[in-house]
Design a protein that fits this description.
CATH class: Alpha Beta
Shape: globular
CATH superfamily: P-loop containing nucleotide triphosphate hydrolases
Strand content: 25-35%
CATH architecture: 3-Layer(aba) Sandwich
Number of domains: 1
Radius of gyration: 18 Å
CATH topology: Rossmann fold
Strand order of the largest sheet: 6-7-8-3-9-10
Number of strands: 10
Largest sheet: 6 strands, mixed
């Protein structure tokens, strides 16, 4: 059972003046973001806006050029070499779910979820397996424990990836377009799991093109374009009455498809 978090409003994530460039290609410009405990922040915007890069910088899969990242009290300044223990603690605090699952094909579903617990948290195999089975049951996938990822559908693999991230006990879950590689019908299964997580009070940052999810589940909507945040606020307000012309054009393109 995933214990509900208490919605305290205390920030779990703070991103301050984040910047990132690849040579002359500037992908993030002065991005700042605060995510309160127990809240869901949805990030939308056109392809190439920098949304996924923000997530990857949050847990230092990408090294930002400047700015500061703080997750659950663990702070990293881009201008300084991170303390290895602090970096490891920050990454443990931020569970990441990718577009393409990233499961180990040569390991069973159970080992995919248990191995990180053994390596990162120092759990015994029995302890890790017990936690893994608890999460697989929650995802409706207990019968898949001894199968390999290739024998699971895309939606099932993404739910397994979510279980793997949750098994490490993160304070925030980062979702990078988790349904974009799935057929719409299959994506609904994953969105239902995410809604259920939100209902428990799990702090979440979700990069998505699922406007219904953004409007109905998110507490804050962040709109990005050209490497920066151009608009943020209450989802219903932005979706119904966007203030920025770039937001209006993006929403028109998405909603009229």
């Amino acid at each position: 059972m995933i214990e509900p978090n208490i919605r305290t409003g205390t920030p779990v994530v703070r991103v301050t003046n984040l910047a990132k460039a690849y040579g002359s290609n500037v992908v993030l410009r002065d991005v700042s973001l605060t995510v309160p405990e127990g809240s869901v922040t949805a990030m939308i915007g056109p392809s190439g806006a920098g949304k996924s890069t923000v997530l990857r910088c949050m847990n230092l899969l990408e090294q930002p050029d400047s700015g500061e990242i703080e997750i659950d009290g663990h702070r990293i300044n881009a201008g300084r070499k991170p303390n290895p223990k602090n970096l490891a603690a920050l990454r443990r605090s931020a569970g990441m779910v990718f577009q393409h699952f990233n499961l180990f094909p040569h390991m069973t579903v159970l080992r995919n979820i248990s191995l990180p617990q053994e390596r990162v948290l120092g759990r015994s195999r029995d302890e890790a397996n017990e936690k893994s089975m608890e999460l697989l049951k929650r995802m409706g996938l207990a019968e898949k424990a001894d199968q390999y990822p290739s024998r699971c559908s895309g939606g099932q693999q993404q739910r397994i990836a979510i279980a793997r991230a949750l098994a490490l006990g993160p304070r925030v879950m980062l979702f990078d377009e988790p349904t974009s590689a799935l057929d719409p019908e299959v994506g609904v299964e994953v969105l239902e799991v995410m809604k259920e997580l939100a209902s428990t009070g799990m702090t979440m940052v979700v990069v998505t093109h699922e406007m219904a999810f953004a409007g109905n589940v998110a507490d804050e909507l962040v709109v990005m374009a050209d490497g920066g945040i151009i608009e943020k606020g209450e989802p219903g307000q932005i979706l119904q009455d966007p203030q920025h012309d770039r937001t209006r054009r993006f929403l028109r393109a998405v909603l009229e498809r």
